[in-house]
Amino acid sequence: MTVTQMKTTVRSTEIDVNGHVNNAKYLEYYEWGREDWYEHRGLTYAALRDRGVVTVVARAEVDYRHPAKQNDVLTITTWLNEVGRTSFRMKQHIVNATGNLISEGQFVIVCVHPDTGRPVPVPSEIAKYVVTR
After folding, report:
1. 23-63 pLDDT, tens per residue?
2. Is the distance from CB of 53 to CB of 130 less than 8 angstroms?
3. CA atoms of 54 and 43, how far apart (whole Å)
4. How far apart, in whole angstroms, are the C-alpha atoms of residue 41 and residue 63?
């Protein structure tokens, strides 16, 4: 499986004064989706660290298309879109239970050594999952 999907339900604490999910919360939703993507491949943070790699977000782009409300069930879809020498791009989107596109995001993630913080090559265990969509 190269694309992962996970579901979450919007909680009252995620709602802002405008009655919908606060824009900053989407970064957390997307982080959950990326963690799920890694875990489905056995690439936990501990496993990557043991290989001399940690991943850090260097760029985040998020487009908001439709508001999400309390109790909405959201599906976060994640895939690896592009791989460079020391970084890769993941694309994600969130839809609600009726299929409305809530948000789209793409993230540039850099692989660095856990002790030095210096860039290191993207491990083949990550690169092999690239999908263009």
Report:
1. 999 999 999 999 999 999 999 999 999 999 999 999 999 99
2. no
3. 11
4. 27
Helix (H) or strand (E) holding 9: strand 3-9
- Global pTM reads 0.94
Domains and CATH numbers, the chain: 3-127 (3.10.129.10)
Kindly tell me the sign of the dihedral angle through the C-alpha atoms of 118, 39, 75, 14.
negative
* Alpha carbon separation from 102 to 4, 23, 96 (Å, rounded): 17, 11, 7
Q: Name the phi and psi angles at 39, rounded to 5.
A: -65, -35
Single-letter amino acid code for the residue at 9 = T
Per DSSP (E only), the strands in 36-100 are 54-64, 73-83, 87-96
124, two tokens:
């083949």
Asked whether the beta carbons of 90 and 81 are under 8 A apart, the reply is yes
